[in-house]
């Protein structure tokens, strides 16, 4: 290091031009005219020519590994009663709701067991009884978030669930 060389301070945002060298102590001025004293081992030369002949090698960006299990679309559970049993007219309204609730809890357990991340529950609009039952079941569960598919929840016939 000699007078006139540009240097930077290690571990600080500080650089300037050397004005004097006294043994191990180097004195330099920054761009604003302030003077600083540092030992030689705290300084590095700031010389663009040092990097002139170094070839830059660009490496390929590593790809993030995503499991195949999470690449597929989310599971959809349609709770319309005619999709759950063969003869829907054989059941009264209480039995219907009980079967729909059992199917919902069964599918929630299946999703947890198989580490699925998302589930869409289609309950339809109707009079809101099934929707209320679905919301009650979801509120009683833990480690999941749910939200309505539409902005206005009373117009939505589906709920999206995300498991933690």
Net shape: rod-shaped
Order of helices and strands: EEEEEEHEHEE
Helix content percent band:
10-25%
Biggest sheet, in brief? Answer: 5 strands, antiparallel
- Order of strands across the widest beta sheet? 4-3-2-1-5
Q: Strand fraction band?
A: 25-35%
Q: What's the mean pLDDT score?
A: 83
**Computed Rg:** 34 Å
Report the top-level CATH class of the largest domain.
Alpha Beta
Which structural class is indicated by helix and strand composition? alpha+beta
End-to-end span in angstroms? 58 Å
Organism: Chryseobacterium endalhagicum
Protein name: Smr/MutS family protein
Domain Smr: 108-164
Pfam family, one: Smr
Can I get a quick summary?
20% of the residues lie in helices and 27% in strands. The protein is built from two helices and nine strands, in the order E-E-E-E-E-E-H-E-H-E-E. Helix 1 (93-113) packs parallel to helix 2.
Summary keywords:
164 residues; alpha+beta; Ribosomal Protein S8, Chain: A, domain 1; five-stranded antiparallel sheet; 9 strands; 27% strand
Task: Characterise the protein shown here.
- Residues 108-164 form the Smr domain.
- This is Smr/MutS family protein.
- InterPro entries: Smr_dom, Smr_dom_sf.
- A hairpin with a 5-residue loop joins β1 (6-9) and β2 (15-22).
- This protein has helices at residues 93-113, 129-140; strands spanning 6-9, 15-22, 25-29, 35-39, 43-45, 75-78, 118-122, 144-148, 158-163.
- 20% of the residues lie in helices and 27% in strands.
- α1 runs parallel beside α2 (129-140).
- The chain has 164 residues and is an alpha+beta fold.
- It is rod-shaped.
- The chain has a 5-stranded antiparallel β-sheet, with no helix packed on it. Strands 6-7-9-8 form a 4-stranded mixed β-sheet, covered by helices on one side.
- It has 2 domains: 6-48; 70-163, Ribosomal Protein S8, Chain: A, domain 1 (2-Layer Sandwich).
């Amino acid at each position: 290091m000699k007078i006139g060389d540009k240097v930077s301070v290690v571990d600080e945002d500080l650089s300037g031009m050397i004005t004097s060298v006294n043994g191990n102590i180097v004195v330099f001025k920054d761009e604003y005219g302030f003077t600083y004293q540092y030992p030689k081992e705290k300084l590095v030369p700031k010389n663009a020519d040092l990097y002139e002949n170094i070839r830059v090698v660009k490496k390929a960006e590593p790809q993030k590994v995503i499991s195949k299990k999470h690449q597929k679309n989310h599971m959809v559970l349609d709770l319309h009663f005619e999709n759950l049993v063969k003869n829907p007219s054989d059941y009264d309204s209480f039995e219907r709701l009980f079967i729909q609730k059992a199917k919902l809890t069964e599918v929630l357990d299946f999703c947890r067991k198989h580490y699925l991340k998302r589930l869409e529950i289609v309950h339809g609009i109707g009079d809101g009884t099934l929707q209320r039952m679905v919301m009650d079941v979801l509120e009683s569960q833990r480690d999941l978030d749910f939200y309505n598919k539409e902005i206005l929840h009373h117009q939505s016939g589906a709920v999206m669930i995300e498991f933690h």
